[in-house]
Each structure stands twice: as structure tokens, then as C-alpha cells.
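sry for the spam today, last one i promise. C-alpha cells for design, 251 residues
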């Protein structure tokens, strides 16, 4: 029995509240697990609560760079208190979009580094936000011993992708890959053992997804597209995703 995994989705987002029971049933039916990432303290609490209702929901708690300038000391305590039961730490990372000056970016970076230290301490996988900050992410990560780090929604250049492979990162591709040639090209240049898939729900996607909030059920379509790009059968691609997902989670 092959299990797929959505490596990055915000199931604790309020947009999913009314559909949560349907989502959990569809995950069971489709045999898909989900890494449920968090934004801040309150969201992390909700993620932990949701994960207790279904073993297919794997809780990742952390501080999104959008929230890094707010007081978030309690997230560190939450990780310390729950490290034995959480699956990983995320969403964490860097993004200058959410800062107005270098001082704020340095504060964001300090939060990122503190959470990386906890991931290293507890040997947890991390889900990293790296929008337009890949080079800064690479510089920071060389200071940590983390072999289970994911650059979610990878959107760098071929050169940056090669750097990610050299540093042993996992990279994930989502629904946009189905209709974006540049993402398909990046996938074809990614080491097979470092490929993961995601939805980043509740992000909305155009084209064939009609601007609907991403659902875990989108994952088979992403895997099917990847199989075509890499000239694999669908079953072969499923097996690759399952193996990589287990390696990323350390199970």
C-alpha cells in the first residue's frame, strides 16, 4: 500500500474549518498524509489539536516570517513541550516582503535561526519559506546540522537548485507545476531522491483548478504531472514520493 504526502499545507487555516471532516475522510480514501504547517503560536496550538483527531495529519509548528516581528517567545516553549509528538518545525524562513528595513530583516533572521537551533536539538525536519531569499537561506543553513530540510514551493534558478542539491535539501513542487513550464524544467533538474510534492493550501491556483483553495486531493494530479515530466509511470512516481517523504520525516 503506497501512501502519498502533501508536504506543506495549512490545514489549521480557518478556510478549512467547515470542511475538515470531509478533508480527513478524503485523505483516508486517497491514502494521503499531510504535513500541517503553522504560522504563529495560536495557529500552532490549533495544528496540534487537529493532529490529535487524525493520525494522517502530521503537525509542524513554527513561526512564519510574516509573523516573526511579533512577540512569539511562546512558540519556543511550545516546541520544547511538544517535541516528542510533533512531526517537524515549520513554516519558518526568511522573506523581505514582510520587513521594511534591514533591522527588521535581521530580527526575522534571528527568529529563523532560533527555530533552526531547536530543529537541530530535537532532530526534526523543517519546512522552509524562502521567497526571494534563497541565497540568504543557504548562508544561514551552513551553520546547522540538519539533514531533513525542505525548501517548500521551490522557485529559484537552476543554479540555486543545484546549490540546494549540493546542500542536501529537499524541494517540493505544487499544483502550479501542472501548467508552468519553468517549474517542470526545475523538476527535471532535481535529484530524484529529493523531490516532494505539496499544495500549500489554502493558496488558490488558476487554470485547471479554477482559483479554488488547494485541497489535499490535488496531490494525485501533481504526482501524475511529475510522472510525465520525469517519464515514469504513475505508480513509480508514487513510490518515489513515498520513499522521499519517509526519508524527510525520518520514519
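last one done:
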Amino acid at each position: 500500500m503506497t501512501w502519498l504526502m502533501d508536504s506543506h499545507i495549512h490545514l489549521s487555516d480557518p478556510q478549512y474549518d467547515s470542511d475538515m471532516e470531509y478533508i480527513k475522510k478524503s485523505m483516508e480514501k486517497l491514502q494521503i498524509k499531510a504535513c500541517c504547517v503553522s504560522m504563529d503560536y495560536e495557529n500552532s496550538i490549533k495544528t496540534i489539536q487537529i493532529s490529535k483527531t487524525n493520525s494522517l495529519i502530521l503537525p509542524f509548528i513554527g513561526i512564519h516570517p510574516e509573523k516573526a516581528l511579533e512577540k512569539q517567545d511562546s512558540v519556543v516553549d511550545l516546541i520544547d513541550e511538544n517535541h516528542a509528538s510533533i512531526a517537524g518545525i515549520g513554516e519558518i524562513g526568511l522573506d523581505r516582503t514582510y520587513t521594511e528595513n534591514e533591522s527588521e530583516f535581521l530580527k526575522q533572521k534571528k527568529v529563523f535561526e532560533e527555530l533552526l537551533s531547536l530543529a537541530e536539538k530535537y532532530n526534526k525536519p523543517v519546512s522552509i519559506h524562502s521567497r526571494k531569499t534563497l541565497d540568504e537561506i543557504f548562508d544561514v543553513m551552513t551553520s546547522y546540522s540538519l539533514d531533513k530540510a525542505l525548501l517548500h514551493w521551490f522557485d529559484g534558478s537552476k543554479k540555486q537548485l543545484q546549490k540546494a542539491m549540493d546542500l542536501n535539501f529537499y524541494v517540493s513542487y505544487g499544483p502550479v507545476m501542472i501548467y508552468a513550464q519553468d517549474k517542470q524544467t526545475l523538476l527535471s533538474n532535481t535529484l530524484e531522491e529529493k523531490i516532494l510534492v505539496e499544495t500549500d493550501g489554502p493558496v488558490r491556483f488558476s487554470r485547471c483548478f479554477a482559483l479554488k483553495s488547494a485541497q489535499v486531493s490535488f496531490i494525485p494530479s501533481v504526482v501524475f504531472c511529475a510522472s510525465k515530466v520525469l517519464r515514469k509511470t504513475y505508480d513509480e512516481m508514487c513510490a518515489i514520493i513515498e520513499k522521499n517523504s519517509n526519508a524527510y520525516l525520518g520514519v
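The longest helix spans residues 102-122. ok im logging off now
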